[in-house]
Amino acid sequence: MSSHRITSRRAAARINATLAAIALALAGPAAVTAAPQAHADPLTRAPASTPAQAQAQALRQEQAQVRTRKRAQPKPVEDCVVQDNRLTELSGLAADGEFRYAVGDGGRRLQVIVLRRDCTVHRVIAAAVDPFDIEDLALGPDGRLWLADIGDNDRRRTTVALHVLAQNGAPELYRLTYPDGPHDAEALLLDRDGQPYIITKESFGASGVYRPAGPLVAPGPTPLELVTSVRFSRTETPGGPVGSMGSMLITGGASSADGSVVALRTYTDVYLYSVPDGDLITALGTEPIRVPLPDEPQGEAIAFEPDGTLLSGSERADSGPQPLRALRDAAALVTSTQPSPVEPSAQPSAPPPAAPAEPDRGGLADWQAVLIAILGAAAVIVVVGRLVRRT
User: How many Å apart are CA 78 and CA 282, to the nearest integer?
Assistant: First the structure.
């Protein structure tokens, strides 16, 4: 290889090195610090949390909590034994933490048996009213007792009734009419505002949920309206008078003291619904948590204690006195911790647009950079000219 060609290559290398040094000097330190950011892997950057992502994460956590609670369901345990013969056909229960209130199926007058916590009789609240078929009992927010005269095995009644009984005072009678003909029913729910709901007992198909279409009028009748429906599948929980068919028949209802949980029972199981915002209709459209109540001969009665314990009871049938059973912490099975409302100022949002970059006060001003660029270009021309002449 000729010395002329080697010298030309060396000259070209010197030119390239000189140009690179001048370019780096012109760019300044910003080029060095910006380079790693320009080549950063976007997959390694943590994206900003959006409201939708935060809500989805909260929902996943709540579903995981529900699955955990389902795996850790409590079992009913005997609390006390009801011996009084007036409650042979126990059909409705209520509780206030100090006493339990119980009604039997049938009878010729309104009668509520007040039980102590050991199931012995404390007193009787009665009124000279002859009901048709009392099937459930609820304790209102004001302490009054609501007796649901809603049984209709033959589906021939033109009206059903609610009797509201003060613990000291005369009862009030509210007659009600269904919009679609007679129904048999055994379950009554009161929401947190004291609004009554009747749930029918259907052998086939869904059970209707009815409430008064307007303010209750004494004695009425006040028309009812169908607001939603519920349907339960057959289970293998033993008990009840009609085999596995009884696991689909709704026989009682109860609301927690604060109205945040409601329960519907069949002869064999109880279904728990969360009502965090008081909207009972929406709550009954969600998936409930089922807890078996096995081996009750004819289970119809349920009630919440103020501490969230669920009491259940059965008619005696042929098996002698029946116990009241307690399902400890039943309300806690569905009262998961709800995410607190996010204040507008604390809501996650997309990052703000980047502000224009401020000039580096320790760097060069624009006119200085232009001047250096001109001098650098002139120096390159001079260097190249000398190298060319040497070759």
Answer: 33
| pLDDT per position as a tens digit, 232-256 | 999 999 999 998 999 999 999 999 9
Contact 208, 229 (CB under 8 A): yes
Q: Which two tokens stand for residue 29?
A: 């330190």
- C-beta atoms surrounding 239 within 10 Å: 21
Query: Helical H runs in 124-178?
Result: none
Helices and strands of the chain, counted as H and E runs: 5, 20
pLDDT tens, position by position, 195-210: 999 999 998 889 999 9
Domains of the chain: 65-333 (2.120.10)
Taking phi over 0 as left and psi of -120 to 50 as alpha, with beta for the rest, 181 belongs to left
Q: How far apart are CA 254 and CA 238, in angstroms?
A: 22
Distance of CA 350 to the CA centre of its chain: 28
Residue-wise pLDDT for 67-113, tens only, equals 545 555 789 999 999 999 999 999 999 999 999 999 998 778 999 99
The model's pLDDT over 273-306, given as tens digits with 9 standing for 90+, comes to 999 999 999 999 999 999 999 999 999 999 999 9
Q: Is the peptide bond before 351 cis (omega within 30 degrees of 0)?
A: no
Q: Which long-range contacts (CB under 8 A, 24 or more apart) does 244-248 make?
A: 245/203, 248/203
Burial class from Cβ neighbours inside 10 Å (0-12, 13-18, 19+) for residue 139 reads buried
Average pLDDT value over all residues in the chain: 79
Q: Distance between CA 141 and CA 145 in Å, rounded?
A: 9
Name 322's bridge partners.
none
* Cα 353 to Cα 157: distance, rounded to the nearest angstrom: 70
Nearest 5°: the CA angle 280, 281, 282 is 95
Q: Per the structure block, which two tokens stand in for 223?
A: 């028309």
DSSP category for residue 153: T
Name which residue leads in pLDDT, 384 or 89.
Answer: 89
Predicted model pTM: 0.69
d(CA 167, CA 229): 33
Contact yes or no for 168/137 (Cβ under 8 A): no
